[in-house]
Amino acid sequence: MRKAAIGHGIEPERLVLADYVTQESHLARYGLADLFLDTLPYNAHATACDALWAGLPVLTCAQGCFAGRVAASLLHAIGLPELVTQTPQDYEALAVGLARDPQKLAGLRGNLAANRLSTPLFDTQSFTRDLEKLYARILNG
C-alpha cells in the first residue's frame, strides 16, 4: 500500500495501517474519523453498517447495480438521505463541503446518534415483527 501511495504522489506516512483487534476495539476506531468516504463503484456493505453503528456518518454515491447502492439504502433506513449523492461530482463537492464545515458534520453525528436505535436500520425487534406479519399474510393468502 505504501508503494502504491508513493506511486500516486502521496506521502506514505499519511497512511495509517492497523493491526487486528477485537470487534469492540475495531468499532471504537471509527470514533477517530470525521466522515466515512464510501467507495465507487462498489459500495461498503457491512463496513458501512459498522461505521453507522459506531456513530460515524457515511457519505456515498448511489450508482449502477445493487452493489453500488447498498450504502444508500442503509442511509435512507437510518434517516440520513442527505448523505446520498447521485454523481461523482456531487459526491466530491459534498465531501469537500463537509470537511470544511465541522458544525454540519457535528449535526450529522447528532442526527445519527438520535436515529441509531429509532429508525429501521438497527431496530431488529420491529423488523422481526414486520417480517412475521408479512409471513402471516403470505400464509393466509
Count of separate structural domains: 1
Major sheet strand order: 1-2-3
What are the low-pLDDT stretches, counting only 5+ consecutive residues below 50?
Answer: none
Q: Return the CATH architecture.
A: 3-Layer(aba) Sandwich
CATH class: Alpha Beta
CATH fold description: Rossmann fold
Number of helices: 7
Short note summarizing the structure:
The protein is mainly alpha-helical. The chain is built from 7 helices and 3 strands. The model has no long low-confidence stretch (mean pLDDT 93).
Structural commentary:
This protein is mostly helical and 141 residues long. It has one domain (34-140): Glycogen Phosphorylase B (Rossmann fold, 3-Layer(aba) Sandwich), CATH 3.40.50.2000. It is 51% helix and 6% strand. The chain is built from 7 helices and 3 strands; from the N terminus they run ααβαβαβααα. It has helices at 2-7, 23-29, 46-53, 70-77, 88-99, 102-115, 124-140, and strands spanning 36-37, 58-61, 84-85. The chain has a 3-stranded parallel beta sheet with strand order 1-2-3. It is globular, with a radius of gyration of 18 Å. The model has no long low-confidence stretch (mean pLDDT 93).
